[in-house]
Write a structure and sequence with these properties.
Blueprint lengths: L5 E4 L2 H10 L6 E4 H9 L6 E4 L7 H9 L3 E4 L2 H18 L3 E3 L2 H10 L32 E8 L9 H4 L4 H4 L9 H9 L1 H14 L6 E5 L5 E7 L4 E5 L5 H8 L14 H4 L14 H11 L3 H17 L7 H12 L10
Parallel strand pairs: 1-2, 3-4, 4-5, 6-7
Antiparallel strand pairs: 6-8, 8-9
């Protein structure tokens, strides 16, 4: 239908199968990590959308940045595990990292027009980032005091630990607002996803943990907010639809007409807020603990979660076992302070 020039399939056997099916088309089929890197280095591409699931996104993202390509980032794990390498590389190569996640896109949109002469993570001129009051040469009133990262609360919002013991896979895969892949849907139900987003926000916007607050906003209308040091709070609102953040990233922060449903505030009636239940949904506090310890700990948190979610999807463990597996992996791990990609 779309006649791509190049297509990468992770599994070589599946790639062989696809080659046979499209042998009459002028498309090159590649596979594995080498194939992902080849796709990321495609000479005609100006911007690379990193949207694979998991840590396999790191190497192709780095390869694309080394080649001077801007990144539209929809792969959390790249920054969660390798943020210290990615942000440094972005500065050195002068490439932009444009967030595609709805929450990080919302923050990015709120920051547009906040003047700064600084360059963070390859971003340019009109985006002001940095710890409030700590960056020399910044004008008062345009630095971030706080990021308010919103969360829907997932399908089990309001439930107790006791009620979560017998949760079935089918229940965990029913997100109230978003249609997403299986892995991210489970991560949303455990609040691990929000923990990953906190880690990602820390790197993208160069803020401290005490400047990131998670707020439950069940309707998924406010995608995230930024409080500035003068007390002003800017929010980005919209329907729960990924088309806008994807388009915003691909056009580098330029507004273009986008058809689709619009917010009807009269019909909406109200937007409500809650605090996250950190005792029941341990994915968020565990993520914050991993990130504070830093070094290789976020990688261990992420890898343990990927493994545990895979086991849950295959009905080998219970829902609450996901937390136990992550916690045990973190307890056993001895932190490497500045891990390289390998």
């Amino acid at each position: 239908e779309f006649s791509p020039e190049l297509s990468c399939v992770w599994d070589e056997e599946k790639a062989k199968e696809l080659r046979v099916k499209v042998q009459d088309l002028p498309v090159k089929i590649v596979s594995g990590m080498d194939g992902l890197i080849e796709a990321a280095l495609e000479p005609s591409a100006q911007i690379v959308v990193t949207a694979v699931v998991g840590m396999i996104g790191i190497r192709p993202t780095i390869a694309a940045m080394e080649a001077g390509k801007d990144i539209a980032l929809a792969n959390k794990e790249t920054l969660v595990t390798a943020g210290h390498l990615i942000m440094d590389l972005a500065k050195r190569k002068g490439v932009r990292i444009l967030p595609v996640d709805s929450e990080h896109s919302a923050i990015f949109q709120c920051l547009h027009g906040e003047r700064s002469d600084r360059l963070y993570g390859g971003w340019t001129d009109d985006v002001s980032l940095g710890r409030a009051g700590q960056d020399e040469g910044q004008t008062a009133g345009n630095t971030i005091a706080k990021i308010l990262l919103t969360a829907s609360g997932g399908p089990f919002r309001g439930r107790t630990k006791e009620q979560l013991k017998n949760v079935q896979l089918e229940d965990a895969l029913k997100h109230p607002n978003w249609a997403m892949g299986q892995k991210i849907t489970i991560d949303s139900s455990t609040m691990v996803n929000k923990g990953l987003e906190v880690m990602e926000a820390r790197w993208l916007f160069d803020v401290g943990f005490d400047q990131i607050q998670v707020v439950i906003q069940p309707q998924s209308i406010i995608h995230s907010m930024v409080e500035f040091e003068d007390g002003a709070v800017l929010a980005q609102l919209g329907t729960p639809d990924m088309k806008l953040p994807i388009q915003y990233a691909l056009y580098g922060g330029e507004r273009r007409y986008l058809p689709g449903e619009r917010l009807d505030f009269a019909k909406l009636g109200s937007i409500t807020f809650e605090e996250p239940d950190m005792d029941t949904f341990k994915g968020l506090p565990l993520a914050m603990e991993a990130s504070k310890k830093g070094g290789s700990m976020p990688t261990v948190f992420n890898a343990a979660n990927e493994k545990a979610v895979g086991m849950f999807l295959n009905r080998k463990i219970g829902f609450l076992d996901i937390y136990s597996i992550i916690e045990e992996a973190m307890v056993r791990h001895k932190v490497i302070k500045n891990p390289d990609v390998d």
